[in-house]
Amino acid sequence: MLSRHEMLPLSRAGVDTMGCRDSLTNCPSLCRPHQGVPVTSRRLSHAEIVASVAPDTPDADVESVIVDPRHASDDVREFAKSVALGLTDTPPWLHCRFLYDDRGSKLFEEITRQPEYYLTRTEAAILEQNAERICRVTGPVTLIELGSGNSVKTDYLLKAYSAGGSSVRYVPVDVSETILHQAKEAIVERHESVTVTGIADTYERAFPLFKEFSPAMVLFLGSSIGNFDQRESHTFWQGLSDALSSRDYLLLGVDLVKEEATLNAAYNDAAGVTEAFTRNLFARINRELGASIELGQIEHVARYHAERQRVEIYARFRTEQEVYLAPLERTIVVPAGTMVMTEICRKYHLKKMAAYLRCFDFSVEHVFTDEREWFGLLLLQRR
Question: Which own/partner pairs from 259-263 qualify as long-range (CB within 8 Å, at least 24 positions apart)?
């Protein structure tokens, strides 16, 4: 699920790679007028962001702001270099961030609707049941969501925090400016008292802005943390802890350890949508990097590794293929039978997770889960 998670160093030989399941989406949309005012976007410097969250700044001035400090011109070459690095590594891998082009994002949204994929609907039900309680615990806060995607589940929280017309600032962070526009458009239509300031960038580049929004609650939903390996997880939590002010909150969604058959089914849906999602990564490599990979010879392989407590997702090359990367003018030969890791999805025990997070100065205030204890939401506070 981005979730997003492209902020961290790429894994190298001997280190597990990460994925982005249940985190990012990238659905195109055109912004429609809201209350007669055209919805536009503009880019702000750090100083302008600080000014935009000042108490005396009219909400209308920042309602449709999208912050995007990235250098888009480098994106294609960065993609090519990442693919070259991953395919020549041992074991080979590809970075999860590239799964989520327009087609991939639409496929992922379809995955979340498959009967085997319990994560999204289970977490949404927990949020629906507990949003008002969470609001009472934290009091008024800015809601900052990492890997916000289309912000559908967040709607339960926005409804609770804006009840009675209370003013709420929502700060979605996502690498896709398009999806931020889509989410913002839907939110301002449903919640008139919610002001949206989107940050179209990676987590690490957004972190320095967080203290400007305090008091705040960061939302990291969808068990996106499960896409990080141990090293990446440590880097992420240290960065987030440093970015937050004392007594700021964090709402974390984690998928819990459960029977292997349930997990394997969730990542191998009968309709084959997840297989299409994995194969689409190579369609993107063909389209954007000039390769000519035979997509019919790419096989989706997903399996739960009980000892590591994670689902590992691979693309298996049925035949040898030459992958030409035009931006680098380089060809990489991938032998038949090669298993290229594209994602990991770690599963957790609540007590162990709570103990781990204490190492980064987060205390667990409340734990919410479903009746089967398949999924957990941890309300944490920065000590």
Answer: 260/304, 260/306, 262/118, 262/374, 263/304, 263/311, 263/347
Angle at 232 between CA 201 and CA 99, to 5 degrees: 55
Domain range 1-383, its CATH number among 3.40.50.720, 3.40.640.10, 3.40.50.150, 2.120.10.30: 3.40.50.150
Judge contact between 313 and 344, C-beta under 8 A.
yes
Contact 149, 3 (CB under 8 A): yes
Please say whether the beta carbons of 165 and 137 come within 8 A: no
Residue 213: alpha-carbon gap to chain centroid: 20
Q: How do residues 52-108 score in pLDDT, each as one tens digit?
A: 555 444 443 444 456 665 544 468 999 999 999 999 999 999 998 899 888 898 899
Instruction: Write down the residue that tokens 């999860």 correspond to.
Output: 96
Determine if the pTM surpasses 0.85.
Answer: no
Q: How far is it, in rounded angstroms, from Cα 79 to Cα 185?
A: 29
Taking alpha carbons only, the member of 44, 79, 82 closest to residue 61 is: 44
Among the listed residues 139, 114, 79, the one whose alpha carbon sits nearest the alpha carbon of residue 287 = 79
- Quickly state the pLDDT bin for 9 (edges 50, 70, 90): very low
Query: Tokens representing 181?
Result: 């526009």
**Average pLDDT of the chain to the nearest whole number:** 84
Domain spans of the chain, in order of start: 1-383
Q: CA 21, CA 96: separation in Å to the nearest integer?
A: 8
Alpha carbon of residue 47 to chain centroid? 26
